[in-house]
Amino acid sequence: MKFKSSDERYLERRREFSKEAGARELWSVVDHWPLYCGIKNLARFMAIADLLRSKLDVPGHVAEFGSWRGATLMLMAKLLRIYDPHGSKQVHCFDSFSGLQTFNEKDGVGASAQGAYRGDYEELVSLIHLYELEDEIIIHKGNILETLPALLDADQAVSFSFVYCDTDLFEPTQKILECIHPRLMKGGLFVVDEWNYEQWPGETAAVRAFLDRYGDAYQPRHVSTAAQPSLVLEKVR
Length: 237
Known about the structure:
The structure is a single chain. Helix content is 43%, strand content 16%. The chain is α/β, with parallel strands linked by helices. The protein has 2 domains: 1-36; 39-235, Rossmann fold (3-Layer(aba) Sandwich). Strands 3-2-1-4-5-7-6 form a 7-stranded mixed sheet, sandwiched between helices. The two termini are 34 Å apart.
């Protein structure tokens, strides 16, 4: 995988710095985050911010699938507060908060990945409250295979302009693409975090199957400024 060696070297340097620096008060780090944030992580968040901002004129809500600890979720909600303060867009969060659960033979991983990326629901709710984002963020806690169809069945009006897919696995990615396709507005985006990643082949397999059916409706785009997200699908019709 590209950048594997440089990533390993960076992580080792980071561990050494952490030992030397010692414990720090939380907000002294948070408020000076560019000092500590890795370039690769910064590039990822900048790419997401650029994509989201480019589609503010497309009607419909924003959704993230696979929110983990909520960093991308909170980024998007805060950006909407800044760039679309009087608009009606909300950010829908879909996560089980139990880690990875739904495995398929196409995923190439098994029990060793069970429970990986387990989020902290209570901490996320507390942070949403800290920044008074309760009106901007809606959390759908549970298995995405169940919570997404339940929302779409219950709310026939809900539509989307920007959908961030970060579930890693085949079945949830397939469900997201298939279910939201009719609700994604023209000009809207599916943004896929780990497409074409050897470690998570299920996400790629789900995208490939979706494009076999609906490829004429989408223009694939490459993000040149960041390793992740690795694929953008813009709905063109």
